């Protein structure tokens, strides 16, 4: 039977606890340093508290140590990992292969998506190195995931199912470092891909003017989750370590319910990776949480409309269109209900996003704080902030309980109370009851409020007819709960690096050695031990780059998106290649359409 894990992001301790309460089987969180979101850091003590809470439900905590590490940081990184192991962290996510040359504690290793995991050969190689799990590239189709699982069935495969998408293969993006001195591989991405560009051809003709040509929609695999399960994925990851707690609550709850349906439909094949059932005070709705519009990305192969060229900001849910406008108000045609304070937005005639707040809502007639200048009848409206929904999520919105069946029995010393293999006893005389006691016994033992448990049943033998003081029953219940809460098994660690040799198919993946992201001597030693002798260090450590630096490898292709890919049903393009992306300050970036690998490469250009 395969365990299915819903993996949620945690910006901080509060988000992590909320994720567990709303149904996550595991959370991933950043420590104070060396995580791929430098803006999000947490103390080891906060992570300890999160581990303690998660482990009550058999849920796990993974910590991101998935940046490249510089030589002067290796000792601090090792100290951090040892501390994390000491407080009960279940695994660490790793990008820098130099860590495999350190004396790591016995903690499970997960190969971060930053290690660029696209092929079965790469996954197999990582498994041979001691990685328990591999986080696959977001760009893979369900068939590619299936083929990887079939090739390496014993390796846990983690896939992204929801949230923001990087346009470049993770770990192979240097645009932020190249343009702004902020490294994506160091957790400081400046979001180059969300910027506006002109698209110009080789003759300088402008094909597109100031559009967000690299900005992708957000991933949403909620309605196709069963395909990923059938393909062999083990863990289903929600992106969003910068997101607030209401995002975590809503998205985790939505995916928890969907995973539960899959398990309920095939209970002989699948089960959840942690314990407990959740009840909610709200109905999860993914459209009401931050999103740039949704896409399945490449799940079923190359598809149109995966990017959002008009805006990189949240659009939210469609709520209707503008019917008519008066001086300080307008009417909406649609079925949505509105509330004072709602945030609405629309795309202007110039293809810009414009937003506003609703000061007063009277049915479908809305009175903005200030009438939007570019609002016109017939325009589609979207709600990117739903006040009523946010109020629901700002309060306690879920309760997670572990159903248990207690068994009370008489023994030679007195009485024994157990749940499964966990039991406690109390010494006292067996005193026959003059009146029926079963109802009182059940009532006393079921008082589990304030604990993670919910008593579904108290089992007693048919001839059980003893008087037991309520204080004795309370003591049995209390001690049993204490024992249950400390009996959660910890994950087995693995830090031994097994002998391996980098396959030719893996070493041939990169045309330039800096794409291996070698930023310290230990990483260089690692690759040498694997039979590879890279001539270049990491991009971030090079004082100057060649004019034609490869900055991104993308499966998103502008030739295809603009209808110019004959291979995929387009028409012969009217422009002359190469094409260039151009920022407003004149900096250009050459595009290369690598049809053999069906990807688009972005190169830096020094000339204005």
Instruction: Compute the CA-based radius of gyration.
Output: 28 Å
**Approximately how much helix is present in the residues?**
10-25%
List low-pLDDT spans: none
Number of beta-strand segments: 29
Shape, principal axes of CA atoms: globular
Sheet of most strands: 8 strands, parallel, barrel
Mean pLDDT: 93
Structural class, by secondary structure, is: alpha/beta
The largest sheet has its strands arranged as: 1-2-3-4-5-6-7-12
Query: Helix count, per DSSP?
Result: 14
Strand content: 25-35%
Distance between the termini: 59 Å
Overview of this structure, please?
- The protein has 14 helices and 29 strands.
- The protein starts with a strand and ends with a strand.
- Helix 1 (13-21) runs parallel beside helix 2 (44-56) and helix 4 packs across helix 5.
- Strand 23 and strand 24 (422-427) form a beta hairpin.
- With 608 residues, the protein is of the alpha/beta class.
- It has an eight-stranded parallel beta barrel, surrounded by six helices.
Provide a short characterization of the protein structure:
Helix content is 23%, strand content 27%. With 608 residues, it is an alpha/beta fold.
Chart the SSEs and their pairings:
Layout: E1 2-10, H1 13-21, E2 26-30, H2 44-56, E3 60-65, H3 74-86, E4 91-94, E5 108-111, H4 120-128, E6 133-135, H5 142-151, E7 156-163, E8 168-173, H6 175-180, E9 197-200, E10 206-211, E11 218-220, H7 225-231, E12 235-238, H8 245-265, E13 270-272, E14 277-280, E15 294-295, E16 317-325, E17 330-333, E18 343-347, E19 353-362, E20 365-368, E21 380-385, H9 387-394, E22 398-410, E23 414-419, E24 422-427, H10 438-445, E25 453-459, H11 470-485, H12 504-507, H13 521-529, E26 550-554, H14 558-561, E27 579-582, E28 588-594, E29 599-605
Parallel strand pairs: 1-2, 1-12, 1-13, 2-3, 3-4, 4-5, 5-6, 6-7, 7-12, 11-15, 22-25
Antiparallel strand pairs: 7-11, 8-26, 9-10, 9-27, 14-22, 16-17, 16-21, 17-20, 18-19, 18-21, 19-20, 22-23, 23-24, 26-29, 27-28, 28-29
Helix pairs in contact: 1-2, 1-8, 4-5, 5-7, 10-11
């Amino acid at each position: 039977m395969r365990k299915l894990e819903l993996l949620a992001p945690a910006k901080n301790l509060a988000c992590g606890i909320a994720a567990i309460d709303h149904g996550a089987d595991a959370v991933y969180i950043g420590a104070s340093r060396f995580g791929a979101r430098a803006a999000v850091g947490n103390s080891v003590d906060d992570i300890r508290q999160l581990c303690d809470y998660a482990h009550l439900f058999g849920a796990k905590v993974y910590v991101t140590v998935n940046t490249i590490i510089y030589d002067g940081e290796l000792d601090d990184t090792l100290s951090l990992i040892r501390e994390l192991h000491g407080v009960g962290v279940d695994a660490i996510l790793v990008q820098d292969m130099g860590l495999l040359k350190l004396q790591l504690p016995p903690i499970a290793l997960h190969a971060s998506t930053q290690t660029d995991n696209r092929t079965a050969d790469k996954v197999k190689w990582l498994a041979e190195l001691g990685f328990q799990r591999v986080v696959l590239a977001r760009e893979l189709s369900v068939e590619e995931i299936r083929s990887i699982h079939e090739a390496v069935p014993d390796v846990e495969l983690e896939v992204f199912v929801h949230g923001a998408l990087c346009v470049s293969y993770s770990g192979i993006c240097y645009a932020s470092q190249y343009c702004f001195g902020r490294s994506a591989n160091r957790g400081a991405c400046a979001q180059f891909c969300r910027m506006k560009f002109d698209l110009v051809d080789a003759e300088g003709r402008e094909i597109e003017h100031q559009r967000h040509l690299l900005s992708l929609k957000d991933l949403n695999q909620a309605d196709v989750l069963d395909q990923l399960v059938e393909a062999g994925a083990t863990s289903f990851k929600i992106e969003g370590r910068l997101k607030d707690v209401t995002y975590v609550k809503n998205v985790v709850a939505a995916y928890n319910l969907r995973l539960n349906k899959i398990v309920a439909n095939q209970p002989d094949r699948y089960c959840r990776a942690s314990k407990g059932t959740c009840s909610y005070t709200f109905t999860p709705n993914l459209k009401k949480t931050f999103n740039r519009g949704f896409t399945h990305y490449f799940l079923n192969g190359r598809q149109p409309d995966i990017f959002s060229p008009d805006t990189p900001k949240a659009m939210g849910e469609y709520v209707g269109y503008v019917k008519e406008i008066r001086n300080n108000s307008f009417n909406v045609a649609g079925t949505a209900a509105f509330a004072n304070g709602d945030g609405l937005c629309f795309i202007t005639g110039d293809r810009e996003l414009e937003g506003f707040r609703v000061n007063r809502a009277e049915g479908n007639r809305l009175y903005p704080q200030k009438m939007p200048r570019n609002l016109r009848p017939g325009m589609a409206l979207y709600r990117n902030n739903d006040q009523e929904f946010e109020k629901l999520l700002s309060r306690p919105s879920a309760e997670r309980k572990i159903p248990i069946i207690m068994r009370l029995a008489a023994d030679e010393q007195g009485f024994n109370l157990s749940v499964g293999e966990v039991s406690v006893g109390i010494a006292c005389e067996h005193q026959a009851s003059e009146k029926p006691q079963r109802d009182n016994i059940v009532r006393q033992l079921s008082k589990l409020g304030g604990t993670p448990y919910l008593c579904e049943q108290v089992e007693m033998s048919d001839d059980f007819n003893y008087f037991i003081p309520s204080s004795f029953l309370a003591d049995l219940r209390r001690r049993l709960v204490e024992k249950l809460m400390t009996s959660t098994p910890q994950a087995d660690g693995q830090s031994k690096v097994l002998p391996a040799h980098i396959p030719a198919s893996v070493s041939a993946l990169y045309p330039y050695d800096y794409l291996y992201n070698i930023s310290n001597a230990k990483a260089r030693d690692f690759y040498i031990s694997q039979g590879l002798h890279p001539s270049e260090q990491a991009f971030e450590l090079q004082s100057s780059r060649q004019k034609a630096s490869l900055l991104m490898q993308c499966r998103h292709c502008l030739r295809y998106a603009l209808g110019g890919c004959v291979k995929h049903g387009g028409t012969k393009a009217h422009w002359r290649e190469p094409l260039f992306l151009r920022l407003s300050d004149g900096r250009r970036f050459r595009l290369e359409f690598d049809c053999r690998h069906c990807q688009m490469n972005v190169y830096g250009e020094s000339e204005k």
